[in-house]
Structures are given as C-alpha cells and as structure tokens.
Design goal:
Layout lengths: L6 E5 L2 E4 L13 E6 L2 E10 L3 E8 L5 E9 L13 E9 L6 E8 L5 E10 L5 E9 L3 E8 L4 E10 L3 E7 L11 E8 L5 E11 L5 E10 L4 E7 L5 E11 L6 E9 L12 E8 L5 E10 L1
Antiparallel strand pairs: 1-2, 3-4, 4-9, 5-8, 6-9, 7-8, 10-15, 11-14, 12-15, 13-14, 13-18, 16-21, 17-20, 18-21, 19-20
C-alpha cells in the first residue's frame, strides 16, 4: 500500500515524488566523511521500501550551511553502477526547516524491492555563502523553468531544485556575460504531469568571485530504448567538489525523461576518502526515442 498523499503527477506512467516523509519516520544521524578545501562532506544512509517514497536529508551539523548534495540510489544488485527500474530522485535542495542547515532530497522506489540509499550534503562556513532562490508556477501538462541569480560580484558554487514534478534540469547557467562561464546562478526545470498547478523553485549558493577559485566542468552521455544512462565529472587534482547538477533532454518530450540520481563521490583510491573528487549522475527515459544528459560539476581549488 502506498501512503496517501505522497505522490503527485505522472511521468511516463510512473508516479513522481512530492511530500514524502511519512509521519513517525525517524531521521538517522548524518556521518561526517571529512573536510577538503574548506568543504565538509556528510552522508545519511537509509533504506527505501518498495512502493514508498522518502524525503530525507544529510545535515551540516552546527554552524555550517549546505551548498550542494544529492542522493545515491543503489541498484537491485547493490553495485556501484546502475539504478533499479522504477527508482528515481525528486527534489534536491538546501533547507533550514530541520533547525540546522541540511541538503534535502526526495526519492521514490517503485522497483519491487527495498533499495539502499545515501543522502549527501556538501557544507561550508555560512560567512562564505550568499543563498538565493526564485520560484515560479507550472501549469498542468507543461514544462517549467526558473533561474536563481547571483548578485554582481558573486559566482555560483552550487544549487538545487524543489518541485512536485520530476527533475529535468538542476544546473548552473551563463547569462552571456564576457567570461562565458556558467557562474551566474542556478537554473531548475521540471514537468507537471498532474491536473493542478505546481511550484518550482531554483536555489543558488553564491560566493564572492575569485575567492574560491572555482572551475566549471561539463560532460554528457546518451541513451536509447528506455534505458538509464550514467555520466560523471572528475575534479582537477587537489580541487574539491562544491556543486553538482544535471540536465535531461530528448526522449519523446519532458514527460518521458528525468534525472534519477545525483551525488558526490571519491575516486576510490583509497575508498575511505571524502567524496570530494568527483560527481555522478543518472537519468532515465521511458520511450525508445534517443535521450541524453549533460552533467555539471563545480570544483573548488
């Protein structure tokens, strides 16, 4: 049985996550994975039962502010590559409603079995970060887009999305200024497959230009025949991952595609390192039409 009221809309026939944390659900303690270049990496591991959704988070502890994060959803064979069919990420964004700064992410499990998940937060001292957000409304059967801009003299170090629909894009953007870098803010996009208007919010974590020595990287991948696809970015040696994003495109339209997971990771040498060296993302498409994904990583020197 699905919990009443936790699903909104349809994407390719699959329900999408909205407000997912059920009454009486306990929030586990986040684990500190280490600090690199002033960024602290935190994780909260839990299980999502089949046929349910979960809205949970990794917290930054006392004093720090969440600037990036996401979720790693293990596949049904618990390997490092692949996402179980029917598992998908929803919103992923910074939140202070828990009483401390957290990175909150929602996920839905329609895979037919329980799934191990890891909720991540990338945290920084609050004095370094200026938080910005911007909201719009998306009508039924429509794709919505919204930008949260950083003010003059700042550049974006991370960002997120909050929506009752699937995540189509949560990425940094360039406003066509002279430097040609996607450092001007954060863009979010979602599809409303339901019968009522929904909210869509973009979040930007902004820092003073040149203070962090940020590098903006992008790569991509493509898929066909309804498969999931993965892509990732490795930061330059000595840099630490600050922000991460992904954008889905193609398929038969916005109703057909979504970002399935998005998370920081290490380079596995050694395995105990903080997940500061790289990022990974996965997307899925429901139809046989060609679909693709571009991923964005922001690295701090």
């Amino acid at each position: 049985m699905r919990k009443a009221g936790i699903f909104r809309g349809l994407v390719g026939g699959a329900a999408v996550v909205s407000s997912l944390l059920g009454a009486g659900s306990a929030q586990a303690v986040s684990q500190d994975l280490g600090t690199v270049n002033g960024l602290n990496y935190r994780v909260m591991a839990t299980t999502i039962d089949s046929g349910t959704g979960l809205d949970s988070y990794a917290d930054c502890g006392d004093g720090d502010i969440a600037i990036g994060g996401g979720i790693d959803i293990a596949d049904d064979e618990d390997t490092n590559v692949g996402i179980a069919e029917g598992a998908t990420m929803g919103s992923t964004y910074p939140d202070t409603d828990a009483g401390v700064s957290v990175w909150r992410t929602s996920a839905l499990n329609e895979s037919g079995g329980s799934l191990e998940t890891a909720f991540y937060a990338i945290c920084s001292e609050p004095a370094d970060v200026l938080a910005r957000k911007n909201k719009t409304r998306v009508g039924p059967g429509s794709r919505g887009k919204v930008r949260a801009a950083c003010p003059t003299g700042y550049e974006v170090a991370g960002g997120g999305i909050r929506s009752a629909g699937p995540t189509l894009a949560t990425v940094p953007y360039d406003d066509d200024d002279k430097n040609k870098k996607p450092d001007d803010g954060w863009r979010a996009s979602s599809y409303n497959g339901g019968g009522e208007r929904i909210s869509l919010t973009a979040f930007a974590s902004c820092v003073r230009a040149r203070d962090w020595g940020l590098t903006y990287l992008r790569s991509g991948a493509a898929t066909q025949a309804g498969h999931t696809v993965h892509s990732g970015i490795l930061c330059p040696e000595g840099d630490a991952l600050a922000g991460l994003g992904a954008k889905a495109r193609g398929g038969e339209g916005p109703h057909d595609i979504s970002i399935r997971e998005l998370y920081p990771q290490n380079d596995f040498l050694p395995e105990e390192d903080a997940p500061s060296e790289a990022m990974a993302a996965g997307m899925g498409a429901q139809s046989d039409a060609i679909a693709g994904m571009s991923v964005s990583g922001i690295c701090r020197s």
